[in-house]
Structure formats: structure tokens, C-alpha cells
Write a structure and sequence with these properties.
InterPro entries: Glyco_trans_2-like, Glycosyltransf_2, Nucleotide-diphossugar_trans. This is Glycosyltransferase family 2 protein. By secondary structure, the protein is α/β, with parallel strands linked by helices. It has a domain of 228 residues: Spore Coat Polysaccharide Biosynthesis Protein SpsA, Chain A (Alpha-Beta Complex). Helix content is 39%, strand content 17%. The chain contains 10 helices and 9 strands. Strands 1, 2, 3, 4, 5, 6, 7, 8 and 9 form a 9-stranded mixed beta sheet that branches. Strand 2, helix 2 and strand 3 form a beta-alpha-beta unit. Helix 6 packs parallel to helix 7 and helix 7 runs parallel beside helix 10. The longest helix has 22 residues. The relative contact order is 0.14. The N terminus and C terminus are likely disordered.
Length: 334
């Protein structure tokens, strides 16, 4: 069986997973699937998991007869959908691409090549934001940056200032563009289904929790694993209009705090916040200073608002009896 194009096969086979939940993203879903098919490396299979939406399931099966299209067999939400795919995947590596992201040429090859090192357990890549207009004021970015990132781009699921610009080891991968060896799931289980996104609910961090849990489990067995960030593996991530509003910034920041609190309860505060400490201490202050000096007080305020709501969410999530599904408190517009 010819699994790959004859231009040098990567060291592992791959199952590419696209999880979907709403027909409103149909054009995005088609673009995501087509971007996988256009890669110079062919995956062993592409799996589309539909999250508790029978109408969308029928439409996807009709549109993609050559793909594996299945319903989420677990709890509703992105984690359950991903776990469904993991159970079905036949590839040595399971690759996850968001339903509103399109892979750039060379994406899959760049993700898979590092697996030639047997110590590499996971590889993730860059997500470039595709805004509905220009960069919004509430997501400031350094105009001088060669990489086009902003300090708060994680709010919209994209690569943010402070992440590596060359291949490097990282604590965790970013969900819209990531891959993990299938053996990792066999060793430590799947994504935690009590945290993470459900529909438009902007909770997250299930990828962070899984990566930390995997590293802790392998270390307990006397084996160190590598989780890599590979900037050559790039996707374009569409940002919808509702995500470039102040209300979404506050809601997403609050949810991030709640999610980080939930992760810290599962894997310990030290590992859960190891990356965030440096980000808060160095990246955010530089952003505020730059925006103030440039005469952009609203953008500087966005950084402060984001940090404030994230911190408040984390504190709320750490309270006894708190869950990751606490509603966002009312707030005035910024």
C-alpha cells in the first residue's frame, strides 16, 4: 500500500483527526479536509468526528465518502470527540486539526519528521490568525515582529508572542495544530472530558493537562519524553467576528483561569503554571509598555483586562467546590 507520496516518507504513519460540531462551519470544515488532502504526505486515514449532531453527521458522510466519518461516542465536547478518534485511529501518530483551520503546504510532513527521534512523544505547530478585518485593538501585536504574533493571540486559539520561533521543547501543545504518538494514549489514557470546550463554551486546557500527565507518567517509569513545537508546521486559523469583541476577551480569559485551576487540581500547580509564570512576568509587561509608548491605551488596557480576568477565574476555580463550568460574572464593557 502506498501511504505517502514518493518524495521521502516520514518515519511514522499518521491518522489526521478533524472534530466538528456545527453546520455553521461547513465551509471551514470543507477547507480543513481539503487542506489535508492537498498535503505532499498522505495520512493513513482522515477521521472526521461529529459531536452529537445527527444532521451534520449525515451531511459529512455524504460529502466525504472516502473518509472515516463517525459520531462522538463519548461525552459531548471536544475532548470526547477526540477520544472517539483516538480509539479508532490506526496510525502510529494521531494528528489533530481544528475544523476552522486550514493546513499550509508541508504542514503534515513538518509535524511527522521529528518522530524519527523515538524520544519525541508529541509535536505541535504554528497557528496564524485569519482575522475578519485587521488585527483588533483588543489583541495587540508587535508590528515589528517577523512572526506576526500578538501577546494575547492564545485567546483566539493561535500562536502568541512568547512561544518559540524555532523548533524547541515545550510543556504542552496547542489544540488546533498538534500530534501525539498513539502509544501515549495507550499509556496514559485520553483527554480529560470534564475540562475543555463544549460548543461555544470557551473553556480549554485539556491539551495542557494531557501533555503534563504524559510527561509525569513516563518520568515515573524512568523515561523522559520530548514534546516539541515545530514552527514549520503551520495552519491558518479563522477567527470569527464574535471573537474580536471585548466581551469575548473577558469571557475567554475568565474561562482560561477556571481551566488552569482545574488542571492544577489534576496534575499539580507547579507543572500547571510553569509556562504561565514567565509569560506573566516578562511578555505581558513588555506588551503594556510598548502599547502605552505607541499611544495605544486601549490595547494596553486589553492586556491588563485579560490578565485580571484570567487571575480572577483561576482564584474562583481554586475555591472549594468550584468546577470549570462556573459562569462568567457580569462585567462592564472595556
Amino acid at each position: 500500500m502506498n501511504l505517502f507520496e514518493p518524495v521521502g516518507a516520514p518515519p511514522v504513519t499518521a491518522s489526521v483527526v478533524v472534530c466538528v460540531y456545527t453546520e455553521k462551519r461547513w465551509a471551514d470544515i470543507v477547507a480543513a479536509v481539503e487542506s489535508v488532502a492537498a498535503q505532499d504526505v498522505r495520512p493513513l486515514e482522515t477521521i472526521v468526528v461529529v459531536d452529537h449532531n445527527p444532521a451534520l453527521l449525515d451531511r459529512a458522510r455524504e460529502a466525504f465518502p472516502e473518509l472515516v466519518v463517525v459520531a462522538n461516542a463519548h461525552k459531548q465536547g471536544l475532548s470526547g470527540a477526540r477520544n472517539t478518534a483516538v480509539e479508532l485511529a490506526k496510525g502510529e501518530v494521531v494528528v489533530f486539526l481544528d475544523d476552522d483551520a486550514s493546513a499550509r503546504p508541508g504542514w503534515l510532513r513538518a509535524l511527522l519528521e521529528p518522530y524519527a527521534d523515538p524520544a519525541v512523544a508529541g509535536v505541535g505547530g504554528v497557528a496564524h490568525p485569519r482575522f475578519p478585518g485587521g488585527r483588533p485593538v483588543m489583541l495587540p501585536g508587535d508590528a515589528l515582529s517577523d512572526h506576526g504574533t500578538g501577546e494575547l493571540d492564545w485567546v483566539v486559539g493561535c500562536t502568541y508572542t512568547g512561544q518559540p520561533t524555532a523548533q524547541a521543547e515545550v510543556r504542552n501543545l496547542m489544540g488546533c495544530n498538534m500530534s501525539l504518538r498513539a502509544e501515549v494514549f495507550k499509556r496514559v489514557g485520553g483527554f480529560a472530558e470534564d475540562i475543555g470546550r463544549i460548543g461555544k463554551n470557551p473553556l480549554g486546557c485539556e491539551e495542557t493537562e494531557l501533555c503534563i500527565r504524559a510527561r509525569q507518567a513516563y518520568r515515573a517509569d524512568g523515561r523522559d519524553i520530548k514534546i516539541l513545537f515545530e514552527p514549520r508546521a503551520a495552519v491558518d486559523h479563522r477567527v470569527s467576528e464574535d471573537r474580536v469583541e471585548w466581551a469575548y476577551l473577558r469571557r475567554r480569559s475568565w474561562a482560561e483561569g477556571l481551566s488552569k485551576a482545574a488542571v492544577s487540581k489534576l496534575v499539580g500547580q507547579g507543572d500547571a503554571l510553569s509556562t504561565e509564570r514567565g509569560y506573566v512576568a516578562t511578555v505581558l509587561p513588555r506588551a503594556v509598555l510598548r502599547e502605552v509608548r505607541a499611544g495605544r491605551p486601549a490595547s494596553a488596557a486589553a492586556v491588563v483586562v485579560c490578565l485580571g480576568f484570567t487571575t480572577a477565574g483561576y482564584v474562583r476555580g481554586k475555591l472549594p467546590g468550584a468546577t470549570a463550568h462556573v459562569s462568567l460574572p457580569a462585567a462592564n464593557g472595556a
